[in-house]
Every structure is written in C-alpha cells, then in structure tokens.
Amino acid sequence: MPRFQRLLVLGALGPVALLATQSCMFTNNVVCATDASAQLSGSPCDIFGAAQTPCVAAFSTTRALYGSYAGPLYQVARASDGTTANIGLLSGGYANAAAQDGFCANTTCTITEIFDQSPRHNNLAVAPPGAAKGKGPGGDDLPAVADSLPVVAGGHKVYGVYISAGMGYRDDAAVGTAENGQPEGVYMVASGIHLQDGCCFDFGNAERNNRNNGSGHMDAIRLGCGVPCSPYVGFDMENGLYPYPPFPVPAGMPFVTAMGANDGQQNYAVYWGNGQAPCLTTTGSIPLPSPQYSPMHQEGAIILGTGGDNSNWAVGSFFEGAMTAGAPASTTLLAVQANIVSVAYSTGSQPTGSQLRTTACFVP
Question: pLDDT tens-digit profile of 122-150?
Fold first, then answer.
C-alpha cells in the first residue's frame, strides 16, 4: 500500500491542500472537492467564467457547456445527397440525437463541423493538410462517422466523436486563444479504452500553419498510450510530451477527464480523473522545461485528434472539451470535474457505422 501524506502544493496555479502518494518518478497528488470548489457550480464554461478564466473555445457533441447555450452543437452531412443538418439541443441541454438519426436514416452521415459554444465562434472544421496529409479531398483529413460512438449522458442517448487514424479537426484562425506565453487551461472528456500509440490524439493550442514550428509552439492536452498500451495524459508542447516520463492513467476507464493548466512562463500542471468519479490526480505545479518552453510560444490554432503538423495516426474518442484564457486553479478544475460526473456518462452500444476498431490498441 502507498504511504499517504498531507501536502500543500504551491505554484502558479495557487495553493490547495492535497492528499498525495509518492511514485518513483514524480508525486501523484489526489485532489478532491473542497469548500472553495463546492461554491463553483453550473456547466463547465459557467464555472470557468465565474473563476475569471473564461472559455475561449468550447466543443461538445453531447451537451451544452454553458447553462445559457441554445445553439447547434455540430453539423452532419449525408453521404446520399451531401445535404447538411445542424444538430441542436433538447430542452435539458443534451444533444438531440433523434434529429441526427432521422436525418441520417438509410444513409451514412459524417461530422463536418463542431461548433464553438463560446462567444469566440472558433468552430472546428475537418483538418486541412499540413506536414502530414490526409486521405480526403486535397489532402484534407477525413471526418468522423456521426453514429459511431453512441453513449448516454444525462439519461439521453447522444453521440461522441470517434476518431480513427486519418481523421481530425482544426481551426487555424481561432481568436482569443493563448499566444506567446499567455496563460491558458484546457480539458477534455475522452475514452480510456479507445487508444493506441500513434501520434497524436491532442486537443488544444497548436501552430497556425500546420507545421512543426519548434518547441513550445503547442500547448495541447493528449490522452494516449505506449507499447504495450498503457494510458497516459500529458501536454503536447511540440517536440516533447510533458511531464516525461508520461503521467500514467489507470487502464480500462471508458470516460477519462484530461486537464491541464499552464501559466505560459514558468509552471504547468496536468490532471486526470475518472469521468464517473469526483476526484482528480495531478502532477501538482511543476516547472516548464527550460529553456525551449519557458516561456511558451503558443500560436493559437485549435486542434482535435491530430498533432500540430497534422500528424493523424492516432485514434481516440472525444465527448467534450474547452480551452480557457488564464490558467485555472485546482479548485476550478475540481468544480468542472464534479459537473462532468453529474452528467453520468455511460457507455451505449459498441461503435457502429464504418469506423473499424482493428487499427487501435485497445486497453483490456
């Protein structure tokens, strides 16, 4: 049994009392709800906003990430005639999967756009080619098949985004995202059982020209696994995944919350949580790698499912995620985690459509 000790972790992300266990490489801090985090409530972007670290990008195909959001979540296109439809919300704030099912009946639909719920309107479209090219028209990546990942959220059938190798989404013209050492935060809810060792199942800040522009030009959270497939979470900062060695995540969780906060100058922290349980495990505040990453050189594009140069050999499953202006404190991230748990994500049927599982290294 590990020996537990009470710690007070100090850093750019603020002090918080933690329950900690020692690992051989770094300290795993298990953070649970505090009085301060309990005072923050609402949907994820309401929580971030109340904590003065507002969302500058917010994406989900399952639910609204603001209590007041009433717009569409994503767009699907029918293979039969190329017609598109925007998939919106039910009255309770969850995706109207029945509208997708009706529109896509007797044909295949793909997700062609994921709408940014923040006021910045940084919508994600199918990723264009970069140093790595896709198999779509003009070297674009391929879109995800819309019905491949049925799950349950809030008691409603909804669909996640099932990324296979060659798929990805991007916005190279995003506004309001961190640049050149500005602080930021990021989180996503993904799957811990749909992973492999390819590069790169990332979500977050990347280069605007779809090329590797050097160390520190990215700041995206990654959920991946090695060989054999042992899940981990970390920041892809370009030419390096940090912390290193990777921050391990237990195998077999169908819903994993991956989070990060980076002050852009000196310190960062990485977190993971079971999407069905309230606590988070964190590295604590640790120094940015020097000198290439301190300060950071973020460019402000947004990626989902690829690396900064469009490396598109990874697989993964995405349900929701957001990026913030400013580095959120642990108390803020705990409140967001509590909200995620309240959604009661659960698995539906196995992935369907034309997505094939054979390319993935699945965690048993």
Answer: 999 999 999 999 999 999 999 999 999 99
Maximal CA-CA distance, the chain = 61
| Sign of the dihedral through C-alpha 354, 98, 86, 125 | negative
Place of tokens 């048993």: 364
Q: What is the C-alpha separation between 261 and 267, in angstroms, rounded?
A: 9
In order of 37, 310, 316, 323, the CA distances from 127 in angstroms are: 36, 8, 16, 18
Positions marked active-site: 238, 309
* Residue 255 within a domain: yes
Q: Name the residue range of residue 353's domain.
A: 4-359
pTM for the whole thing?
0.89
Decide if 273 is inside a domain: yes
pLDDT digits (tens, 9 = 90+) for 66-98: 999 999 999 999 999 999 999 999 999 999 999
- DSSP-assigned beta bridge partners for residue 257: 189, 273
Give me the residue label for tokens 């972790």. 9
